[in-house]
């Protein structure tokens, strides 16, 4: 035990993805519930695909839990060393397991009350887990709907295309939600989402797999948009 066997240390030791610790000197304020309430308002299904194609960063409800102001919660009165021990955050480096619990707390920085650092026990960020679960759920729904609402999806390359098109629809929704990273095209008028979908051709699938009607694995690769949590600037004054 690094710090005495606290709840935060326990969920960190278990590398829990769906549990987080929130330190506050007044537990009666329920700051963890306040943070979850904020996260629950970030409905990734509500988005604007056209705005996303134009490169808008507000086309959907992508978010980070860090920096958020929580209604009815007062900041803790703790110095930077204590906050570092709580969160494990090292400026310029990120969350370091050897420096703290990877827990969250609520502080005042520059007169702005805010959550830091928005992490779960595994050191992943809350939004990453949210997005991953959302993508898995929507992909399962899309594939099941495709299989259930057709007389059949044939075990052919065009049939595979039907399945991949269903998944591509999910990824387009993810682009609109703002969770898929992208770049501006060479003409500066087009937005290029950073995701790809690959699948083997049917003729390359073992006959035993085809006989059992198990579709080839559809592989989706994308770059998560994430968020900036720390920034520096170098300013040179000349005379």
TrEMBL record:
Superkingdom of source: Bacteria
Pfam families reported for this sequence: DUF3383
InterPro entries: DUF3383
Name of this chain's protein: DUF3383 family protein
Organism encoding this protein: Alsobacter sp. KACC 23698
């Amino acid at each position: 035990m690094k710090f005495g066997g606290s709840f935060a240390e326990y969920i960190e030791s278990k590398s829990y993805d769906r549990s987080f610790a929130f330190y506050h000197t007044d537990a009666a304020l329920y700051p963890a519930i306040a943070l979850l309430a904020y996260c629950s308002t970030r409905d990734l299904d509500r988005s604007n695909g056209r705005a996303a194609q134009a490169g808008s960063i507000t086309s959907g409800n992508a978010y980070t839990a860090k920096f958020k102001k929580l209604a009815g919660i007062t900041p803790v009165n703790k110095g930077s060393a204590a906050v570092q021990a709580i969160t494990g955050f090292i400026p310029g480096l990120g969350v370091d397991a050897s420096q703290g619990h990877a827990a969250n707390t609520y502080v005042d920085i520059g007169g702005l009350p805010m959550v830091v650092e928005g992490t779960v026990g595994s050191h992943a960020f809350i939004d990453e887990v949210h997005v991953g679960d959302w993508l898995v759920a929507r992909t399962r729904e899309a594939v099941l709907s495709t299989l259930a609402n057709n007389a059949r999806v044939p075990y052919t390359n065009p049939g595979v295309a039907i399945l991949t098109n269903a998944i591509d629809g999910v990824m387009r929704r993810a682009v609109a939600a703002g969770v898929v990273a992208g770049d501006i095209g060479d003409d500066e008028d087009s937005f290029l989402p950073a995701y790809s979908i690959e699948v083997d051709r049917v003729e390359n699938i073992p006959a035993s797999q085809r006989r059992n009607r198990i579709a080839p694995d559809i592989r989706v690769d994308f770059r998560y948009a994430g968020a900036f949590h720390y920034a520096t600037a170098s300013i040179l004054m000349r005379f």
